[in-house]
Amino acid sequence: PLPVALNNELANFASQNPDLVEFDQSRGMIKFKSDVTFSVGDADLTEKARGAIERFAQILNSPAAANYELLVAGHTDSTPVHNQSTISKGHKDNWYLSSHRAISVAAALVRDAVQPTRLGVVGYADQRPVASNASESGKAQNRRVEVLILPTTVHNNLAGNTGNAVTASDRVKPAPARHNKDDVRDNKDAVPTTPPMNK
């Protein structure tokens, strides 16, 4: 479970933006509704979404959340991309569109001072629906960008070599060199004793 203070902040954030955001407390996930976050067939954030993400970034940078990793996941409904205007923007299909929308949200978080080392981005296209695509309301639910606050903390990079960073002694050591008369015969990469035939 996320810390109580963080849960409360996220719940308040969602209640202040009910047309744009939902908060799933059990999964530690904020869901941005694509129909309000983006224009149809586009991956550029609306003005309202940018304002909400700025506030969201403040929460993510608070002491209660500052060390959590974040996964930004884009989703679409099952309708194939066919509008030439959408395709000309680089959103060739639902895989591209879902990925580009996730990237837009992640990039906005970085602009608002969330460290990029905390972020991962993925696009699922229409492969993980939360409702039936047989109805317009179901499709609207499936068009979304989720930000999961993961129950793992950020590891320092190897350059700093502090905290939970992997050290040289933690790495897998190479197998000892073999020294026996069968080395050449056993090693598939050994230089051949006769030149190969020229095919």
Tell me what you see in this structure:
By secondary structure, the chain is α+β, with helices and mostly antiparallel strands. The protein is built from 7 helices and 5 strands; from the N terminus they run H-E-E-H-H-E-H-H-E-H-E-H. A 5-stranded mixed β-sheet has the order 1-2-5-3-4. A hairpin with a 4-residue loop joins strand 1 and strand 2. The longest helix is centred in the middle third of the chain and has 18 residues, at 94-111. The chain is globular, with a radius of gyration of 24 Å.
Q: In percent terms, what proportion of residues is strand?
A: 15-25%
As residue ranges, the low-confidence spans are: 158-179, 181-199
Count of DSSP H/I helices: 7
End-to-end separation in angstroms reads 64 Å
Question: Structural class of the helix and strand makeup?
Answer: alpha+beta
| Overall number of strands | 5
Average pLDDT across residues?
A: 84
Order of helices and strands: HEEHHEHHEHEH
Shape: globular
| Rg computed from alpha carbons, rounded to a whole number of angstroms | 24 Å
Q: State the share of residues found in helices, binned by percent.
A: 25-40%
The strands making up the biggest β-sheet line up spatially as: 1-2-5-3-4
**Main β-sheet, in a few words?**
5 strands, mixed
